[in-house]
Amino acid sequence: MEEKIEKLVQWLQEQVKNANLNGLVVGISGGIDSAVVAHLIKRAFPNNSLGVIMPCKSNPKDMEDAMKVVESSGINYVKIDLTETHNVLFTAIEKELKDKGEWDKEKARLGDANMRARLRMTTLYAVANNFGYLVTGTDNAAEWYTGYFTKYGDGGVDLVPLVNFTKGEVREMAKVLGVPKEIIEKAPSAGLWEGQTDENEMGTTYEMIDKYLKGEAVPDKDKQVIERMHRISEHKRNLAAKPPKF
Q1: Distant-in-sequence, close-in-space partners of 10: CB < 8 Å, separation ≥ 6
Q2: What's the confidence (pLDDT) of residue 201?
C-alpha cells in the first residue's frame, strides 16, 4: 500500500504539472475518503495544498472530525459556512415553485441535499481559482461504480485519485497515512440528513460492493441492488449527452 500511495502522489504531481497549475484543493467532510485525499495532496504538495471545510446544516461532530483530519495531515485549511447561502437559494426556489403550485414536497429532501453538494463544488472551484489549484475528488471505486455521488456535486471535480480503490483499500490506505482511528471506524455517511448513513440509503454494504467489484460471489439481493445502481447512474459517469450530427 505504501508503494501505491507513492505512485498516487507522483500521479497527482504530474496532473498539476500537466495543467500548468500550482497545487491541489479538497473539501474535507470528516469522513474517511476526504481524510485520505487530504493526506495524499499534502504529501504531493506540502506547501501548495488546501483543505476546505464547508459546513451546511452539518452535524457538529463532522466538523470536529474534519479538524482532526487537518491536524493529522498538517494541511493548510479554510472554513466556509454555506448554511445561510443554501437557505437563501433553496427558500427562493421553494417559494417560486409553491407560488406556481408545482412544489413537490416528497422530492424536497433530496433536492436540498444535492444542492448542498453542488454549493460545495462551486465553493471549491472558486477557492481553486484563487490559488491556481486543481479540485481533487474523494469518490472511491464503490461510489463511482454505483453512482453514489451527486452529479456536478462531489462528482464535479478535476481529479479522482481514489476511483480505482475499493472502500476496504481506502481504509487500508488511511491506516498507512495516519488518518485518526475514529474516522477510519465511523459509519460512512454523506451527512445529508440526521441519522443518514450510506449503507442504509443504498440498501447494501460497502463490503458487498467491494466483493462484487473484485469478482467475488455476493448474495443475489445485493447483486441486484448493485447492478441496478450502476445501470441507473450511467449518466453520472459521462459528460452531458449530445445528439449525433444530423
Answers
A1: none
A2: 76
